[in-house]
Known about the structure:
mainly alpha
Amino acid sequence: MxxxxxxxxxxxxxxxxxxxLKGENxxxxxxxxxxxxxxxxxxxxxxxxxxxxxxxxxxxxxxxxIVREKKIYLREIALDxxxxxxxxxxxxxxxxxTDWISRIFAEIKKTRASLDENIIHGNIIVLRSILSCSxxxxxxxxxxxxxxxxxNHRNNKNAFIQLAVIETIPYLARFDTGIFCVTHLKxxxxxxxTFGFNSKTEKAICYExxxxxxxxxxxxxxxxxxxxxxxxxxxxxxxxxxxFCPEIIKCVDxxxxxxxxxxxxxxxxxxxxDLVIFYGLYPRTLEFLNEICALGESDNWWGAYAxxxxxxxxxxxxxxxxxxxxxxxxxxxxxxxxxxxxxTEALQNELSSNPEFRKIDSVALxxxxxxxxxxxxxxxxxxxxxxxxxxxxxxxxSPLIRKAAANAGSLLYIRQASKGDFMTKQFVDExxxxxxxxxxxxxxxxxxxxxxxxxxxxxxxxxxxxxxxxILFTCLHDPxxxxxxxxxxxxxxxxxxxxxxxxPYIKKKIFQSLNALNYExxxxxxxxxxxx
Length: 532
């Protein structure tokens, strides 16, 4: 469909939508549907629909009235529509942009003194859309008024208004960074840090906004406020509030990126990183700590922190898994004994005073960290620790823990096995007995599957053993096809070590799979067999 036909369809749909908006006693759901239809028309056919929708001021006023609706779902769909409209306007000629932005400002100015929360909320969201799309020349003369109007409502008790203010602050900062930093940065940061620290529901969005400001603003503008910033982040990390707030770690990460080594002028980095580790071994925490370790590969100054991070993470994991702090060797003069002693005392305090320190979620995170984090400075120190501590978690009651232990144990020993001479055959056999016992007998399908998938080619030389082959052949009869597939993959890799023993079993499995494909009437079963 094209040409005049499309224009006719658009015109008919716009007319029908405005009938629903104009009509008296129209149900709210119809108004919602009408605005949603107009929004989609504006997205899919912008040039055709824009002129039809906004052909006169009456249409604009109809939409604007819904922006002030008491019902939040109607107000939000109207605001979404206006956001799409403003984006559309920003792509038009300058005179058209100026005309429409002036119209919108005129409506906002009429109600700038209003205390009606619905009007305030609508005005702030519309201003945010303008800031995100408009050229500076369109609103530069009104920028100070816009900024003051938005920030003056930061302490409004209405949650929707506060959220709108918080989300709009980065748009103000990005629109004209210099003016924002000179005039409003201190007010905005103070509000965000105070409100974020004291709020439970809006903590994440506050710190996300703070992190965005750190990204936008030059470090020279932040120096004056670094005391308050670091004190707030330090207090947040220290209280270890649940649920975990990754945005706090993002703030620390952004500051490290922005200031680099100079961050040490405002905070003791060792203390800050200790607090980050104690905050929880969550994925966002590990991502940040990995970034620090990566810096250490090319910069000796950061290298000292990388060595310290890996040691302290291992000490923390050992405390979570075993209930006591293992003593790992200090491998470098960069790590001070007094710093390690202080951290050990803090760990002992956590063990004795924090009942959540060794909860099942913490154990799972600790095991996952062992599997995913690169402890390259301490690779030679972990084998006995993993054997004595991690393997026992393969018998834990929780499938989540057993699965994490399967990943952690295998990945660590894969790294060790690759060195060849470090691990004796007896040592590896003891580990493989445990692993293959899980592959054969764990009641949880996903644990058996994970355990088998963890046994990659670095174990092949040790798996070439009659006892182990027998277990792998038994796994080929597992009711879960994925377990069978993982077993067969390992067996195929072992052919080069003992073809006379293994090839007959592989042939038999192939013939069974071919027969299943030929005679199996259930399509789902065919799909399961076909990978073989």
